[in-house]
Specification:
The protein is of the alpha/beta class and 451 residues long. It contains 13 helices and 16 strands. It has helices at residues 21-41, 43-46, 50-68, 74-89, 95-99, 132-143, 193-199, 204-215, 230-238, 281-288, 305-314, 329-342, 349-359; strands at residues 105-109, 114-118, 121-124, 156-160, 166-170, 180-184, 220-224, 247-251, 263-267, 295-301, 321-325, 362-368, 374-386, 389-402, 408-414, 448-449. Residues 429-451 are annotated as: Disordered.
Length: 451
C-alpha cells in the first residue's frame, strides 16, 4: 500500500498551530484514503484528465468524511479537496505560485523556507512542504516531461519550463540543508517599451534615443546584476527592430520572447551522463553566422562565447545585442576583457580593446533599486581607444535625491553630449528635443517622486 507520509500543505497551512492539528490530521487521513483508491484503480487513473481527477477527489473526500464522521465543515472539506487535487494532478504547494502572474521568482531553501519575489521585493511566503522528500517529488514531477533527472548521480539540474520559465535545483549531498530550488518566471506577454516607460524604467528622452539606436543598428550591451531587468529590457528593445530583418537568438536557457515575425531561437545543450553531446553557446553563435542573420542576440554572455559575439558585431551583423552581469559600464568592459582572456585570446591587450571598442556602440546599465523598481542607471557610449584605454562618454545618468519631506526624487540627467557614432548621424535631428529642436540640455530631465 502507498503511504501518505508526505502530505501536502496549502499556502495558509504552513504554520502548524494547535488549532490546525485536527484539520491536518483529517487531511492526512483523506490523502491516505485517496492513495489506496488510486492503487485500486491502477493504470486507469493515469489516463484521467485533471477535471476528472478533481471530480474523483471531491466525491471520495465527501464519502470519506461522512463514513468516518470526521469533524470538519463544508469549507474545510472544499479546501482539502482543492489541495489534494493539486497534489495528485498538479504541482502541489507550488501550483498557485506558478499560475500567479505577479510572482517573478520562487526560491525554496529546504522544505520549510519558501521565498517569493513580487515587483522586485523578496519576501518569505507562508507556504511549506511536509519534508524534503515532498519537495523532491514536486520538482521531479516538473522535470519529468522535460526528460531531465535529479538524483544522487545528477544532483544539479537547470531546465527551461514549458511556459518559458527556468528551474534550477541542487540537492544533497551538494546542498547541505536540503533541496535548493530556484524558479524564474517570465511574462507570457513581453513588456513593450511603452510599458517600461510607464513603470519608470526610463523617461521619454531615453526611450526616443533607444528606439533610434536600435533602428540604426547600433550594437548594444545591457549590463546589470541578477534580477535587474536585463532580459525584460532586451525583449522591449526587440520591439524596435524593423520587421523585415532576420534575428537569431542564442541562449544557455531560452528565456527571450521577442515579439518579432522572423526569429530563430537557439538553445545550448548540456552533456549527457557521460559528458558527451555538449553544445555550447559558442558553438551556436558560430553556427548562427552561417544562417544569414541580420542581427544576433545573445541572451547572456558569461564565457568564451564573448569572442564570437565580438566577431559577429565586427563582421557585418550590426544591431546585435547581448546582456552581461556587471555592476557598471566600466566593470562591463573589464568583464568582457576577462572573458576574452578565458577564451584564449592570443593578441595584445591593445588589440583586444580596439576590437571591443569597434564592436560595441552603447552600454546600458540597468539596476534594481531599494524599493524593487528597475531603472536604467546609465547610458554610456564607447567612443574608441586612447592611451591603451577604452574611451567612454556617459550620455545619461540616473540620479536620486531626498526632498525636504524625506521623500526620494529621481530623474535622468543628460550631459548634453551628442553621440559620437556615425550610425546615428543620419537621425541626429531626431535626437533633439521635439519641442525646442535643440540637443538635450546639460541639466535635462525633471525630478519626480519615486513611487
Amino acid at each position: 500500500m502507498i503511504h501518505a507520509a508526505n502530505t501536502p500543505f496549502s499556502p495558509d497551512e504552513s504554520r502548524r498551530s494547535d488549532d490546525a492539528q485536527p484539520y491536518l490530521r483529517v487531511k492526512a487521513a483523506a490523502h491516505e484514503h485517496l492513495l489506496e483508491r488510486i492503487e485500486e484503480l491502477g493504470a486507469e487513473f493515469g489516463r484521467w484528465s485533471r477535471e476528472a481527477i478533481g471530480e474523483f477527489v471531491a466525491i471520495e473526500v465527501a464519502a470519506f468524511t461522512r463514513l468516518k464522521r470526521l469533524p470538519i465543515n463544508e469549507m474545510e472539506q472544499r479546501r482539502i479537496t482543492d489541495v489534494l487535487t493539486k497534489e495528485l494532478s498538479g504541482f502541489g504547494p507550488l501550483e498557485d505560485l506558478l499560475s500567479d502572474p505577479g510572482v517573478e521568482d520562487i526560491l525554496i531553501n529546504g522544505y520549510d523556507h519558501v521565498f517569493v519575489s513580487r515587483q522586485g521585493i523578496l519576501e518569505e511566503e507562508p507556504l511549506a512542504f511536509n519534508d524534503n522528500a515532498h519537495v523532491l517529488r514536486i520538482v521531479r514531477r516538473i522535470l519529468a516531461p522535460l526528460g531531465r533527472r535529479l538524483d544522487e548521480s545528477c544532483p544539479m539540474v537547470d531546465a527551461r519550463l514549458p511556459d518559458g520559465g527556468r528551474l534550477n535545483a541542487i540537492i544533497e549531498p551538494l546542498a547541505v540543508d536540503g533541496p535548493m530550488v530556484s524558479i524564474r518566471k517570465f511574462r507570457r506577454d513581453p513588456l513593450k517599451p511603452e510599458d517600461l516607460l510607464a513603470l519608470g524604467t526610463f523617461d521619454e528622452q531615453i526611450l526616443r534615443f533607444l528606439r533610434l539606436a536600435v533602428e540604426q543598428r547600433c550594437n548594444i550591451i545591457i549590463s546589470g546584476g541578477t534580477s535587474s531587468g536585463k532580459t525584460s529590457l532586451l525583449n522591449a528593445l526587440a520591439f524596435c527592430i524593423p520587421q523585415r530583418e532576420r534575428i537569431i537568438t542564442v541562449e544557455d536557457t531560452a528565456e527571450l520572447a521577442l515579439n518579432h515575425p522572423h526569429v530563430v531561437r537557439l538553445e545550448s545543450r548540456q552533456g549527457g551522463f557521460d559528458g558527451t553531446g555538449i553544445v555550447s553557446i559558442r558553438d551556436l553563435i558560430r553556427n548562427s553566422l552561417r544562417m544569414r542573420p541580420d542581427r544576433v542576440i545573445v541572451g547572456e554572455v558569461r564565457g568564451a562565447e564573448v569572442m564570437d559575439m565580438l566577431q559577429a558585431m565586427n563582421t557585418g551583423h550590426d544591431g546585435s545585442m547581448a546582456t552581461i552581469h556587471a555592476n557598471s559600464p566600466r566593470e562591463c568592459l573589464y568583464r568582457i576583457e576577462m572573458l576574452a582572456g578565458f577564451a584564449g585570446f592570443q593578441g595584445s591587450e591593445d588589440s583586444l580593446r580596439r576590437q571591443i571598442a569597434s564592436a560595441v556602440d552603447f552600454i546600458i546599465q540597468i539596476g534594481r533599486m531599494s524599493n524593487g523598481k528597475r531603472r536604467i542607471l546609465s547610458l554610456t557610449e564607447i567612443t574608441g581607444v586612447g592611451d591603451g584605454i577604452i574611451a567612454t562618454q556617459e550620455l545619461y545618468r540616473h540620479e536620486t535625491v531626498l526632498d525636504a519631506d524625506g521623500a526620494e526624487l529621481e530623474r535622468w540627467h543628460s550631459l548634453g553630449i551628442q553621440p559620437h557614432t556615425p550610425k546615428l548621424a543620419p537621425v541626429r535631428h531626431a535626437l533633439r528635443d521635439p519641442d525646442t529642436g535643440t540637443p538635450p540640455p546639460e541639466s535635462g530631465g525633471f525630478w519626480f517622486r519615486r513611487s
